[in-house]
Design a protein that fits this description.
about 45% helix, single chain, eleven-stranded mixed sheet, DUF1832 domain-containing protein, two-stranded antiparallel ribbon
Length: about 525
């Protein structure tokens, strides 16, 4: 099947113009391939009723010129995947022609409406989006799905329109539909604001609206590293009641989950993989050596063997088997497992493992816990969430909206950023969980904390809100945090000079980048 096409008459001139921007006038076939890929990435799918949308009076492309030989199978595969057809389908040339014309129109529109926009800007922006889309595409795991997880989770498939603020001049409401996949490559959100800036109140109002709009189908976990005093808890009682949120004050109340219950306790190979993940978490945050890791692994395997009822062992049962193995030779492993057990941070028995992720929780992490226990327990929880959702498989995009399951909100996230051991799992979490209907919301006092070594956490969050921070003079860091161009950054800088508590600038797509507005806050909305 030969694929020889002609663009529309109107697009012939556009091919020439765009080619000059990219290569100085040569390689018009490259522009056509970019247009084809860009069109497909927008989600546009043509019906047979649209086959006459474009004429064929423009630039002609012969098969070997268009695909340069070596790329032919790749582009045919893209069309086959997009339309669910085979490589021999007679409509493939028509779809390729339509998407090239459509892509040329869309790219040309971008340049006409952004005079300062260069082809380099275009390529870097959309290459990155393309890479994100590849990473976010849910794989089909039907044949290897862990069907023994016994955990189910509600899903919300509609648009989630969150009112994030007000126009300062007009009072007009400002909305952000963070699960709109046509605008946002992922649903992760970064928020920066110093103490008293309104950051936490903004976060609580976000969750209140999330609960209301999704009828409680999208649940959340709020991790608070500051910890709540009794006065704070009383002040937040309305929020807890309105969103049906249970406040867990560690270590006085156990977390309502068993951190090893994500492990498949039926399939032996899957069970071993899960046990290794559990051991890795303990090893990473408690500095145990190889020999101790093997001891923990053996004890965990034995704990599963002893549970002939098919239930998962508790941390206390695993600890008892570790002690049985090492006897009086106490070491780092026995110390960390003892503290995790004696504090009873996790429920020893969970009758229905689906309850935790289908309810809303506020975890108040008291300073009474020493650092090792504190962070080990938190990453056991994060590891549990990650593995449960990845075992479930990805969620669908319906009418352009990513179906959502869960929001993990981490307040004072800089406490995690400072723990070098936590960086790897946070990085994996942000990159890998996006297609599974889970949003990570990070709250921190400044923007410098987001940039750790070779990884900038804010760059993995599509949406950013910047409230007053102490370092508003770091223009370069601010532009990076908000994903602003030099032009947008200059405009934003002028708005930052006016920034006051309760106000912010953001990069939400529903608003011009860098616009100043008043953020919603829970107490004011009440």
């Amino acid at each position: 099947m030969q694929i020889n096409i002609k663009t529309s008459g109107e697009n012939q001139a556009i091919v020439t113009q765009l080619t000059k921007k990219l290569t100085g006038g040569t390689k018009e076939n490259v522009i056509a391939r970019i247009a084809l890929g860009y069109s497909l990435s927008t989600g546009k799918r043509f019906t047979q009723q649209e086959f006459s949308t474009y004429d064929s009076q423009g630039k002609e492309y012969k098969d070997h010129i268009l695909f340069d030989g070596q790329y032919r199978d790749f582009y045919i595969a893209l069309i086959c995947q997009a339309y669910g057809i085979t490589k021999n389908d007679e409509l493939i040339p028509k779809y390729i022609k339509l998407h090239i014309d459509h892509g040329l129109e869309k790219i040309n529109y971008l340049f006409e409406n952004n005079p300062q926009y260069t082809f380099f800007d275009f390529l870097t922006e959309y290459f990155r989006k393309g890479i994100d889309l590849i990473e976010d595409t849910p794989e089909r795991f039907d044949c290897v799905e862990n069907r023994n997880q016994h955990i189910t989770k509600t899903t919300f498939s509609g648009p989630i329109q969150i009112k994030v603020g007000y126009n300062i001049s007009t009072g007009e409401n400002i909305y952000c539909c963070f699960n709109d996949s046509t605008r946002y490559n992922n649903q992760h959100i970064a928020v920066a604001g110093k103490s008293g800036s309104g950051k936490t109140q903004f976060a609580l109002e976000f969750l209140r609206q999330l609960y209301k709009q999704t009828q409680g189908q999208v649940n959340f976990l709020f991790l608070d590293f500051k910890g709540l005093s009794e006065d704070d808890k009383n002040k937040m009682s309305d929020f807890f009641t309105e969103t049906h949120t249970e406040c867990i004050n560690a270590p006085h109340t156990p977390f309502p989950l068993n951190p090893v219950s994500f492990i498949d306790n039926v399939n032996e190979k899957n069970k071993l993989v899960g046990i290794n993940k559990f051991v890795d978490i303990i090893a990473k945050y408690s500095n145990i050596g190889k020999r101790q890791q093997q001891t923990l692994k053996d004890a965990t395997k034995e704990a599963f063997i002893q549970h002939k009822d098919g239930k998962h062992p508790s941390l206390k049962e695993i600890y008892d088997l570790v002690i049985e193995s090492v006897g009086d030779n106490r070491d780092t492993l026995t110390e960390i497992m003892e503290r995790l057990s004696e504090y009873e941070l996790f429920a020893s028995r969970v009758n229905d493992p689906s309850i935790f992720l289908n309810n809303n929780y506020y975890f108040s992490l008291s300073g009474e816990l020493d650092s090792t226990v504190r962070f080990t327990s938190i990453f056991l929880i994060i590891n549990y969430i990650f593995n449960v959702f990845t075992n479930m498989g990805g969620t669908e995009v319906i009418d352009g909206n990513r179906s959502m399951r869960y929001v993990l909100m981490i307040d004072e996230a800089h406490d995690l950023f400072r723990e070098k051991k936590s960086l790897e799992i946070l990085e994996v979490l942000l990159r890998k969980i996006r297609s599974y209907g889970v949003s990570i919301v990070l709250l921190s006092q400044g923007i410098s904390e987001y940039n750790q070594g070779n990884f900038d956490f804010s760059q993995e969050c599509e949406t950013a809100f910047l409230l007053p921070i102490n370092d508003l003079n770091n223009t370069k860091a601010i532009n990076k945090f908000l994903g602003l161009s030099e032009k947008d950054g200059s405009r934003t800088l002028r708005n930052l000079e006016k920034l006051d508590n309760g106000q912010c600038v953001s990069n939400i797509k529903e608003l011009q980048k860098g616009d100043l507005f008043e953020v919603v806050q829970y107490w004011k909305e009440k």
